[in-house]
Design a protein that fits this description.
Layout: E1 16-17, E2 29-31, E3 34-42, E4 49-57, E5 60-64, E6 72-74, E7 80-84, E8 92-96, E9 103-107, H1 111-127
Antiparallel strand pairs: 1-2, 2-3, 3-4, 3-9, 4-5, 5-6, 7-8, 8-9
Length: 140
């Protein structure tokens, strides 16, 4: 398994489809340390939901408006991940970053996509805790 200190590699990596993937999520692809695809993210100030492209690579979660866009990073170190019913969205979850004090609200189009992302983020977060006390990650 790759460590969290590995640098971001190029998109020339070989990717495979998520197992149990439905046809309604064609953008979700995965390797041993990567998952990517479109999700909805709530803007911090306007609170409007915008379609964003997400990339989870090793222990880093990035997002942008498109795969070619400028990537912004969501810190996962000591972050809390949980389901939420913000704005009555059925498949929403939140990432509460203790590093920057911000809460990121993310919405998937279905339960399978939500669970896949939450589990992958949870594993990435756990892998990022080098030498620190073990932190169990519970996807609720």
């Amino acid at each position: 398994m790759a460590s969290c200190s590995d640098s971001v590699t190029t998109d020339s990596q070989k990717t495979n489809s998520l197992s149990n993937r439905s046809d309604s999520q064609p953008d979700a692809e995965v390797t041993d340390t990567e998952i990517k695809g479109y999700l909805m993210k709530r803007a911090r100030l306007s609170r409007k939901w915008k379609k964003q492209w997400f990339l989870l690579r090793n222990c880093d979660l990035f997002y942008s408006e498109s795969p070619e866009g400028s990537l912004k990073k969501i810190p996962l170190t000591d972050a809390d991940i949980s389901e939420t019913r913000v704005d009555k969205k059925q498949y929403a979850f939140q990432i509460r970053s203790k590093q920057n004090g911000r809460t990121y609200y993310i919405h998937a189009e279905n339960e399978l996509t939500q669970n896949s992302w939450m589990q992958a983020i949870c594993f990435a977060k756990a892998a990022g805790n080098h030498g620190s006390a073990s932190q169990a990650c519970v996807v609720q």
